[in-house]
Design a protein that fits this description.
By secondary structure, this protein is an alpha/beta fold. It has helices at about 5-15, 35-50, 110-120, 140-155, 170-185, 220-230, 250-255, 270-285, 310-325, and strands at about 60-70, 75-80, 90-95, 120-125, 160-170, 195, 260-270, 290-300. It has nine helices and eight strands. The chain has an eight-stranded mixed beta sheet with strand order 1-2-4-3-5-6-7-8, sandwiched between helices. It starts with a helix and ends with a helix.
Length: about 325
C-alpha cells in the first residue's frame, strides 16, 4: 500500500535537515557543531509537529505541573477530559518520542489531548531530560522516577494508582516498555497497561532494513545514528545492547508477567519489524497483546493530525483500546 497521499504531500512540501536524507552518514557530521545541529533539529521538529487545531477535542482542563525526576524536578502537563469521572479514575503516563534528543510537552500536546479525549483518562505527559546534554540513562531514570512519583501522588490528582497505563511514541514507546520491564524486574507495582506507538525497542541498527527517507518520515539511518550517538555515546563506554535502551533483547524471563499491551505499527516505517518482534515476544511470554498496523502511515504520523484525518482516527482508536483496558469506557 502506498504512503497516504496527504502525508506524502506534506513530505514533499516540508524541508527537513540533511540528517533526514537517506544518503546522510554520521561521518558527514563528525566535524560539525553538535549543539548547532541539535538546535536546528529541535527547531525543525517543533515546526513540523506543533499545530493549533481549531477543532481539537475540548478538555475539562489542562494543568502544568512539576514532577520528581531522577535528579531534580521535571516539567509535566496533565490533560483532564470532560468525561474523566468522579473519584479515583485511571490515567495514562505519556512519554514523547524524538530519539531522546528532540520533542517536548508542546510537540506532543495534540496527541495527548486526543488520547485523553478518546480514552476518557487523564494523561500526564513528562518532559524528561534530553541528549546530548543528558546522556543515557538519564531519560530512563527520569521515566522510572516520574512513574514512582505518579503512584505516590495519584490520589492528589484523583487517579487510581492500580489503573495507571504507560504510553509513548517511538523513543517514548521505548521508555514505556522499559518502565514495564523494570517494574517487573523490581517486583514493584507494574503498570496496568502499556500502549506502544511505533516504538523504538532496540538502539543497535536500522540500516539493514533498506528503507529510504521517503519511506520512514522522522527516521532515517543517519538520524538513527545521530540519536544513538547523542544518547548512548560512542566508543568502549557505549552499550546500545543495554536492556534498558534495547528492551527487545531482554531475556524471556523479563517478558513474563508484563502488563497487557497494544502495539501500533506503521506500514512505511523502518521500526515496523522490531515493533512486531516485540509484540511477538510479549505474546510468546503469555502477555495479552494486540497489534494494529496502519499500512499507509509513516513513522511519526500521529504528530501530523493537522494534515491527516487518518492520524486523528488512529489516536482515537488507540485511546479507546486503553480506555476499555483501564475501565474508563
Amino acid at each position: 500500500m502506498p504512503i497516504d497521499p496527504t502525508l506524502q504531500a506534506f513530505l514533499n512540501s516540508f524541508k527537513l535537515p540533511d540528517l533526514f536524507k537517506p544518503d546522510f552518514t554520521l561521518t558527514d557530521f563528525s566535524k560539525a557543531d553538535w549543539k548547532e545541529t541539535t538546535d536546528r533539529l529541535r527547531q525543525s521538529f517543533y515546526r513540523s509537529t506543533r499545530s493549533v487545531e481549531s477543532d481539537a477535542p475540548q478538555l475539562a482542563q489542562t494543568d502544568n505541573i512539576i514532577v520528581d525526576g531522577a535528579e531534580g524536578p521535571l516539567k509535566a502537563r496533565v490533560y483532564t477530559p470532560l468525561a474523566a469521572g468522579i473519584g479515583q479514575q485511571p490515567a495514562i503516563l505519556f512519554f514523547h518520542g524524538g530519539g531522546f534528543v528532540v520533542g517536548d510537552l508542546d510537540s506532543h500536546e495534540m496527541i495527548c489531548i486526543r488520547l485523553a479525549h478518546a480514552s476518557r483518562c487523564r494523561v500526564i505527559s513528562i518532559d524528561y531530560r534530553l541528549a546530548p546534554e543528558h546522556k543515557f540513562p538519564c531519560a530512563h531514570d527520569d521515566a522510572i522516577a516520574a512513574y514512582d512519583w505518579l503512584l505516590r501522588r495519584a490520589k492528589d490528582f484523583s487517579i487510581d494508582p492500580d489503573r495507571v497505563a504507560v504510553a509513548g511514541d517511538s523513543a517514548g514507546g521505548n521508555l514505556a516498555a522499559f518502565v514495564s520491564q523494570e517494574m517487573v524486574r523490581r517486583g514493584g507495582n507494574e503498570p496496568a497497561f502499556q500502549l506502544l506507538l511505533y516504538p523504538l525497542v532496540q538502539f543497535v541498527d536500522i540500516k539493514s532494513r533498506g528503507l529510504t527517507f521517503q519511506e520512514g518520515f522522522f527516521i532515517s539511518p543517519g538520524l538513527f545514528d545521530f540519536f544513538k550517538t547523542s544518547y548512548v555515546g560512542e566508543g568502549e563506554d557505549a552499550d546500545a545492547m543495554d536492556l534498558r535502551v534495547s528492551p527487545l533483547f531482554a531475556p524471556e524471563a523479563d517478558f513474563k508477567g508484563l502488563p497487557p499491551a497494544h502495539v501500533v505499527l506503521c506500514g512505511w516505517d523502518p521500526l515496523n519489524a522490531e515493533g512486531r518482534a516485540y509484540a511477538d515476544k510479549l505474546a510468546a511470554a503469555g502477555v495479552p497483546v494486540t497489534v494494529k498496523e496502519h499500512p499507509g502511515m509513516v513513522h511519526g504520523f500521529m504528530n501530523l493530525t493537522a494534515v491527516s484525518v487518518p492520524a486523528r482516527d488512529a489516536i482515537a482508536n488507540a485511546g479507546e483500546i486503553v480506555g476499555r483496558a483501564l475501565g474508563s469506557l
